[in-house]
Amino acid sequence: MSTCLFCKMVSGEIQPDIVYQNDFVLAFNDINPKAPVHVLIIPKQHIETLNELTDAGLAGQLFSAAPIIAKQLGLSENGYRLVVNCNKHGGQEVYHLHIHLLGGRQMTWPPG
Ligand code: 5GP
Ligand code: ZN
After folding, report:
1. Of 112, 80, 101, 88, which Cα lies nearest the Cα of 33?
2. Is the pLDDT assigned to residue 1 strictly greater than 80?
3. pTM, entire model
């Protein structure tokens, strides 16, 4: 059995607040939201960081889920932000690849 937190969500051992899924990706609300909408989009397959993402098809699945979820949550017109934190300098805390989808407020740039 996997010890990875997000793999446990994929297997159903832990039940996140799911907002979208298909055969390849799972998307759920972040437990500690940094914006009114904060969804994490993950591959169902365990991939540690963006550095290990070599499957362009899966990259497409992850990336193309974002506008579907944004539309579902009413973010398309005002907009939203996608973030991928990679390794230490990127601020990654959970070592199962994920895209942060943030929306519902004005974002600032550059990030800290
Ligand atoms: P990272 O810093 O790795 O890019 O982001 C990890 C994200 O996972 C953080 O935003 C954090 O709030 C979220 N997170 C950590 N543990 C849990 C959890 O048990 N459930 C959910 N839904 N999100 C989590
Ligand atoms: Zn995992």
Report:
1. 101
2. no
3. 0.98
User: Is-contact 82 75, C-beta < 8 A?
Assistant: no
How far away, in angstroms, is 35 Cα from ligand 1 center? 13
Residues that place a CB less than 5 A from ion ligand 2: 4, 6-7, 46, 96
Q: What is the CATH number of domain 5-103?
A: 3.30.428.10
| ipTM score of complex | 0.99
Ligand 2 mean position to 46 CA, how many Å? Answer: 4
Indicate the domain borders of the chain. Answer: 5-103
- Given phi > 0 = left and psi -120 to 50 = alpha, else beta, which region is 74? left
Q: Is 98 a catalytic residue?
A: yes
